[in-house]
Amino acid sequence: MYAIGNDHTGVDLKYIIKKHLEEKGETVKDFGTESTTASNYPDIAESVANAVASGECERAVLICGTGVGMSIAANKVKGVRAVCCSEPFSAKMSKEHNNANVLCFGARVIGNEMAKMIVDSWYEAEFQGGRHQTRVDIISDIEKRQK
Ligand code: RB5
Fold it and tell me: How many domains, the chain?
């Protein structure tokens, strides 16, 4: 199952991406918001990141104005590797090399079709393991050293 979440800037794009993932056969749990009234992106990011970290959801997509705030907030949750992407190459590499489990982008930065291309690149890519697993393990070690 995928998780999806957004702030007030990403409502329309959220529904487009949710439908796009569902058309791939994925179940998508929507953590909101449905409202275009100003909201605080870290609240949504925390809920979605916890769903991924707990294993309730395998991966997630987060949308705010830039994708930046969502990615910063989601990365505060242990076990989350959130990436902010505005183009497909980074999205692909973020899965292949970094095993990114949360994909973020900005509804004020990219268009709907680019967002779908970014999702496709990330979705279709596979983590390559090997030396990349070693490096992801080092990231986990950093988390373990945090108080
Ligand atoms: C909201 O104005 C905006 O700050 C938010 O959507 C996001 O871009 C933050 O990183």
Answer: 1
Q: What percent of the chain has pLDDT over 70?
A: 100
If you average pLDDT over residues 20-40, what whole number do you get? Answer: 98
Strand 2-6: give its sheet, edge to edge: 28-30, 2-6, 59-64, 102-106, 82-84
Q: Does the predicted TM-score (pTM) go above 0.85?
A: yes
- In degrees, rounded to 5, the angle at the alpha carbon of residue 119 between the alpha carbons of residues 111 and 65 is 45
If one residue of 6, 7, 62 were mutated to test the ligand 1 pocket, choosing by the most ligand atoms within 8 A of its CB, it would be 7
Q: Which of 20, 57, 64, 85 is catalytic?
A: 64
In one-letter notation, the amino acid at residue 103 is: L
Tell me if residue 84 is catalytic: no
Range of the domain at 71: 2-145
